[in-house]
Amino acid sequence: MLEIYNSLTQEKAPFVPLEPGKIKMYVCGMTVYDYCHIGHARVMVTFDVIVRYLRHIGYDVNYVRNITDVDDKIFNRAAENNEPFDALTARFIDAMHEDERRLGVIAPTSEPRATLCMHQIIDMIETLIAKDVAYAVENGDVYFSIEKFPEYGQLSKKKLDELLVGARVEASQIKRNPMDFVLWKSAKAGEASWPSPWGEGRPGWHIECSAMSTHCLGNTFDIHGGGPDLKFPHHENEIAQSEAATGQKFVNCWMHAGAVRVNKEKMSKSLGNFFTIRDVMEKYDPEVIRYFLISSHYRSQVDYSEDSLQEAVAALGRLYNAMRGEVIAECEVVESYQQRFQQAMNDDFNTPLALSVLFELVKDINKAKTEGAAELPQLLATLKRLGGILGILQCSAEDFFTRSADESAISEAEILALIERRKQARIEKNWAESDRVRDELKDKGVILDDGREGTTWRRL
Ligand SMILES: [Zn+2]
Fold first, then answer.
1. Which of 218, 270, 277, 276 is nearest to 249 (CA)?
2. Is residue 218 within 8 Å of 24, Cβ to Cβ?
3. Which residue blocks in 260-347 are alpha helix, DSSP H?
4. Are residues 141 and 251 in the same domain?
């Protein structure tokens, strides 16, 4: 039985979908004004593994992940660049899709964009005004009235009066209560805007997600996910807007991925320890990055460092090494391994435990190889199948070891030329030269393995 930790109840509980066999799931996507960083990669990969696993155990998953393509950050960046905001967002949406493709992240079932859902957003704001939980002010802004939703704070476990103390400082004259949050912002001069009953303007960030999720999935759906920093105020506000508008429960299970820290510090541009996915992919294979991200439980904090990436290189290399030189046939998986893998994943998607099952499998594969055991093909097929649920081990071992994100040290052609030179040296019994070539390659991060079928190589 699948158990999931629910951020709302703060406990792990058996997962029961609203409709048997089906899961409706929404994850907050990117605000597209820059390249995605390694923290985004964690959210992408976390929910990718979750969706892959839910589908593996037979659920029909409707996975919606939005794109925030209207926001102050977008408008400000477009103004800095002196370009139309939609040219900026189009470019970064393409870049995000490219990063996801390289990380092996499966596309969501639908990917709604705020600018294409203005109608639904305005409809929801009108409903909230009609129900007297939102109000328009003279300048054309619309606010959600926090006092009209007494359940506010249920997700973040924050009490309204405590929040108010902090909010007093920035109390504004136009809001009725300093904690009221914006649903519709009136347009500033020269900014892109959309027509509405309250004049030209644009939606606030929170209302987008409420409108798009209920539009795509209905008033109540199974799972809502996002990054660690979204719980408050974003998700708290989503609950308030949606439940006030529909009068129904918004989401059954809230899931939040943990943060990524860099060398034990918060990742931030000002600290200079900010890494885009592209920066990291220049040095490491995308599958290594994926392995690094799933080697910790999705809710825990992960620490990004050169050491942890190097550990991922070695660990993933060990898994691929078991498949090396073998033809992986389509055959039944070994039930005992499949069961233990599922047990791990059923426990709130415990990927580190699931990976440990793969390493035990590798031990058995290596033993079967030396003993020439008949179950080798089945063991290999099991490794590849279970790896696929985590989005790893889907290329051939040869491809994995020879492809490289960083070819700056030495190209494939140079490696092959050096291997040929070493071969000649060995034919001439010039062992000193043979060793010299091996060391030269090692210095450039290339490891040679001499086998029955000749010499193979892999990058470290
Ligand atoms: Zn959202």
1. 218
2. yes
3. 277-283, 286-294, 306-323, 335-346
4. yes
Q: How far does the centroid of ligand 1 lie from the alpha carbon of residue 31, in Å? A: 10
Q: Is residue 279 part of a domain?
A: no
Spacing, Cα 321 to ligand 1 middle (Å): 41
Q: Are 441 and 415 in contact (CB under 8 A)?
A: yes
Residues 251, 153 share a domain: yes
Measured between alpha carbons, how far is 206 from 210 in angstroms, rounded to an integer? Answer: 7
Q: Is the dihedral of CA 248, 240, 254, 120 positive or negative?
A: positive
In the predicted structure, residue 61 carries a pLDDT above the cut 50: yes
What per-residue string of b and e applies to 368-402 under the rule 16 or more CB within 10 Å gives b?
beeeeeeebbbbbbbbbbbbebbbbbeebbeebbb
Beta-carbon contacts of 171 under 8 Å, excluding residues fewer than 6 positions away, are: 178
* DSSP state letter for 409: S
Same domain flag for 334 and 432? no
List pLDDT tens digits, range 393-421: 999 998 898 876 456 677 787 888 899 99
The residues, ordered by sequence, that sit 6+ positions from 126 with a Cβ below 8 Å of its Cβ are 197
CB atoms closer than 10 angstroms to residue 314 = 10
For 88-128, what is each residue's pLDDT tens digit?
999 999 999 999 999 999 999 999 999 999 999 999 999 99
Ligand 1 centroid to Cα of residue 2, in Å, is 25
What's the Cα-to-Cα distance from 247 to each of 128, 131, 375, rounded to whole Å? 11, 10, 57
What was the pLDDT predicted at 167?
Answer: 62
Last residue of a domain, one of 399, 433, 448: 399
The reported pLDDT for the residue numbered 301 is: 94
Distance 427 CA to ligand 1 centre (A): 65
pLDDT at 408: 60
Distance from the alpha carbon of residue 71 to the mean position of ligand 1, in angstroms? 12
* 73 occurs within a structural domain: yes
User: Binning pLDDT at 50, 70 and 90, where does residue 169 land?
Assistant: low
> What are 325-357's pLDDT values in tens digits?
898 988 999 999 999 999 999 999 999 999 999
- Three-class SS state of 314: helix
Cα of 208 vs centre of ligand 1, distance in Å, is 7
Q: How far is the CA of 287 from the centre of ligand 1 (A)?
A: 27
Domain count, the chain: 3
CA 299 / ligand 1 centre spacing (Å): 18
Ligand 1 center–CA 27 separation, angstroms: 7
